[in-house]
Amino acid sequence: MSVVVRTIARIIVPMILAFGGYVIMHGHLTPGGGFQGGAVVASAVALIVVVFGAERLKRRKTLLSLLEDLGAIAFIALAFLGIGVTFFRNVLAGGGGLFGVPVPPGPNPGFLDTGGTLPLMNWAVGLKVIAGLGSVVVLFGLFGGKDDR
Amino acid sequence: MTLWGVLQVLTLVLIVAGAALAVWLKDLLAAVIALAASSLLLSLEFYLLQAPDVAIAEAGIGAALTTAIYILAIRKTRRKEEE
Hints:
The complex is a heterodimer. By secondary structure, chain A is mainly α. Helix content of chain A is about 60%, strand content about 0%.
């Protein structure tokens, strides 16, 4: 692609990554969550593939595959944490530990350190969606060999 | 009609116009851009209907990822549609 497109992409990719990370991190408080934030980050990967070519990300295929497996395993493991009572039981909520601050009753602006296992599950889903959609775009860019620009 | 209603009707008309443009254009890259604009306006319409969750998903998947996949496909094949 041209110099203009490459320069703009270099400026805008960190912004897309920051916004995607924000959507994933605040998934239990604001609109969005693991899937939406993962899709936003994967669109940054798609921008890199379209502008700089898929060859640049060719060596990261194994890393993306490993991250996708890690996301799925983390989600199932977090669900199995509460198997003592039921599958998917939120064992961390209200416990005072990680993400375990009790929420005061009534309207509030939203506290980040609440939600129990839900933020961790958002991270797991986000990791899986980033790696899955990202590897789809990278493999699609690599398919068919040389580009006809 | 309120300002909110006018904005919504305008958005819906522009969505249909973008979709018709995507069918009508012979240059496939321009058609993909029209489809992306239509998808982005659909995301705005979801936001106006107070579904911001769906709007983020539509903007990420519909406007960004499908456009990237179409552009990669056009780059590996032909740009002009055959008669």
